[in-house]
Amino acid sequence: MAVTMNKNYAKLGKNYLFAEIKNRVASYQAAHPQADIIRLGIGDVTRPLPKIVTEAMAQAAREMATAAGFRGYGAEQGYEFLKEAVRKYYAKRGVSLSCEEIFISDGAKSDIGNLTDLFGQDNTVLIPDPVYPVYVDTNVMNGRQIVFLPADEENGFLPMPGPETVGDIIYLCSPNNPTGAVYNKEQLQKWVDFANARGSIILFDAAYECFIQDDLPHSIYEIPGAETCAIEICSLSKKAGFTGTRCGYTVIPSALKRGGFSLNAMWLRRQSTKYNGTSYVVQRGAQAVFTPDGEKAVEENLRYYRGNARIITQALEEMGVYYTGGRNAPYIWLKCPPSQDSWEFFDRLLSECHVVGTPGAGFGSCGWEYLRLTAFGTRKNTLEAMRRIQNGGVFR
Amino acid sequence: MAVTMNKNYAKLGKNYLFAEIKNRVASYQAAHPQADIIRLGIGDVTRPLPKIVTEAMAQAAREMATAAGFRGYGAEQGYEFLKEAVRKYYAKRGVSLSCEEIFISDGAKSDIGNLTDLFGQDNTVLIPDPVYPVYVDTNVMNGRQIVFLPADEENGFLPMPGPETVGDIIYLCSPNNPTGAVYNKEQLQKWVDFANARGSIILFDAAYECFIQDDLPHSIYEIPGAETCAIEICSLSKKAGFTGTRCGYTVIPSALKRGGFSLNAMWLRRQSTKYNGTSYVVQRGAQAVFTPDGEKAVEENLRYYRGNARIITQALEEMGVYYTGGRNAPYIWLKCPPSQDSWEFFDRLLSECHVVGTPGAGFGSCGWEYLRLTAFGTRKNTLEAMRRIQNGGVFR
Predict the structure, then answer these.
(1) Using a CB-CB distance cutoff of 8 angstroms, which residues of chain A are in contact with residue B114?
(2) Predicted pLDDT at B41
(3) What's the rounded mean pLDDT across residues A369-386?
(4) Chain A, window 280-309: residues with a beta carbon less than 8 angstroms from a chain B beta carbon
(5) Model confidence at B42, in pLDDT bands (50, 70, 90)?
(6) By the 8 A CB rule, do B148 and B364 touch?
(7) Most buried pick, B104, B106, B108, B278, via CB within 10 A?
(8) Would you call A9 and B134 a contact, using CB atoms and an 8 Å cutoff?
(9) Sequence-separated (6 or more) residues with CB below 8 Å from residue A269
């Protein structure tokens, strides 16, 4: 008789990780008002936007006040000027795309969530553990069966498919959030071959590709065969400081087909029906990121964050602590001292060093004895935090 | 074995309306290069953004280049400054909301599409015909049963619920796209009472509320009881020229519950999981719309469009043509001459008057003998188009 709600929402775990961190930090601070607490747990950037980006946005805004410069509805999949900039960015790495394979969005989180619309409810979803919680939650909302792929010290937090592996929809995030681990070409080739043989689809989250310094794949399309099994989602959030400005892009090759459907055509229809394009002003800012001066400015910020990562990893190495990430990723995933789980160690770091990390348990059951630090703080805070950790003896 | 796709996508009708219009206009223009074609079919605005809005965006962009002014991730549901501005906008009309009941988005189309996530697949969806095609397509994508509610000359294109009416999810759009018809308080009260009695949910699309001049409800929350049965979706697209800038808002009262679920809490969880908030720069522009100077500038543009609507409706009245809309809406829905369907009349207007309208058939089967004109053109073009139509004798 009455309307029915989507009952899968009742199966969602509480979205409590960052709220719980906030509560614990707030109550510690209340009890210790003098404590100078440093937050190295946040996944948000701190460097301002490059001037070339903000000037492009200001200019675009001013255009909109003129009859000649006003822009109404744009194409749902983005302006050609930005798709062309993204196309060239891929071309530099030897990945040849057409503009019709590139979809501009307001960020990777939206696309990762909305892409689940394209698939049947009866698929099995393969998700690494630990992982960015959005992969899990968006599929719980759809009622799909989820299988976890354990990542651990043994596989270097880079799990591979085996003869028993199942999964119709496979999430891979490389460089990984939260572990900072990065797949090499041979490993990704195995995943691509697995997906093509099985008829699976890989959703490849490349949001951190810009942090790669070594000879490792930035895009899954550097791997032969990926165009028939993979969708890639990327973002300007971490690359160019767009966490509050909102712009990303998703690549769906025209060769990607399943069950008589072109996934590119389905996504175009999905976006044309449920999205009205990314703000013109924001797209002009994003375009500036891909200019030579924009790339220089972005590189300067990335160098700053990489410097922070080096400070963190050097300190961990001096203390003999196991970790992944940091070199090709903004995340450092470190092992807690023996017999301390991630929340216990979180509390100890907070009370003894006044440093806030992110407990690994928040990213999945395989994270229970790990903690994530990020390179997104200021240089001063990063140096001071690691000094305190080294002097505090929490790892002894 | 292999991944399965969402087979409902195969049931979608071709998204051909505006493509077909474009094709017909292009081939006519190619055959008649001298023809000065006027487009009065478009649903996009033409007036530039008010300077106060673009200056607020330019200022916000520049802030983002400074360490002190940089903003990273904002709340997924929007900044307090904008929610507060929307709250006050409702308060002026006597509608009392809390900021937690207001969700800022990148536009009404996204929210209308994504709100379907909250409901079970087994609901019957009641959709007026003719109507904005997004309501139909987003529910076809979810495989829900759709029942159409015929709107016609007899009910003044304002269909009402009767003893036989079914519908768990009910779409109402007032002022209506495409008919421009507007429900009065008594009519909306009947819909609210129907939904509350039945346990249904009304999705109330208020995207054109700013065009209302008479004493008619702008918001469904002006109707007692709406807070326990209705979600309202609104937008700055038509009000303030944001079609390319992208900002809207959705209201979900905290009193709205079904089957043990709070719809407000479900939407907060949906948006926190699949959305990362509207661009800060855009939200600052939207905030400026609600300032006294912003409202003045918006009112000036609305007056311009209303003037166009008056030119169109006066001409129709002089010709004795039946129409709805125009007075409290930017759309004028006119009846084609006897024995001409909407595509035939479209072709005739194009070839005899060089004027482009939108064939009513594109909005549903009840639109087959109607045509939509819009008030969004320039004054000069609107005057000239109606002069040609009056002189052309297409209605004789």
Answers:
(1) 114, 274
(2) 87
(3) 97
(4) 280-282, 285
(5) confident
(6) yes
(7) B278
(8) no
(9) B9, B12, B15
